[in-house]
Structures are given as C-alpha cells and as structure tokens.
C-alpha cells in the first residue's frame, strides 16, 4: 500500500501546526512530528492507513505523530540519487502544497470533496474546519 523508501518524518513548529488547525497534545513542547508517506495506489481506505501508521510509530518509537499526510504515487520530493528531500517535504507541508489524499482539516478523502458541496454534507461546519 505504501511505497517502500518513500516516506519522510519531519518536525514542524507548534505555531504552524496550530495555525493549520492541527490538534496538538499538551505534552508537546515546541515541535510536532509529521509523517509524509507516498502510496502505491489510491484505492483504499486512507483513514485506516493513517491510523495504522500513527499507531505503529507510537508503538515502535514511543512518539506521537500529530499529522500524517498520504500523497499520490511518484510525488514525494527526491534528489537525483533517490534520497528524500525532507526539508522540501516540510516546506510543502507548511505551504499546504503537498496535495494529500485526505483533507487536513476534515480527514475526508480529497477526491470525494466537491467545490460546490456544503460543509454540512461532509459532516462538518465552518467552525469545525477552522
């Protein structure tokens, strides 16, 4: 489901996470961990994959992931040698240009969100998204 070797874990300053309306546990001091993972295919339940990634990181490493972004195949930034450009991944996360498969604010698959649909039809309201 996930592309081998196509993941980045980056630290993002708390003020940026809070500005993006990402809930951060009180135990965090200055940065939060964000996982950016490329998928092989987009035909799966993205919400389940995100939960599995976050649970695995917590279990194996004892840290909490504040956000997981699944991105389309062949879209993670790499060097010409194939190494992940973590700084560029973090910058794209901060800028909101990662083109994740799930909306950061709602957790709804981006492909299912209509630009003409109301927020209520997705089970959220404008206050819940902000």
UniProtKB/TrEMBL annotation:
Please report the name of this protein according to its UniProt entry.
Uncharacterized protein
Per its UniProt record, what InterPro entries does this chain match?
A: AMP-bd_C_sf
Family annotation (Gene3D superfamilies): 3.30.300.30
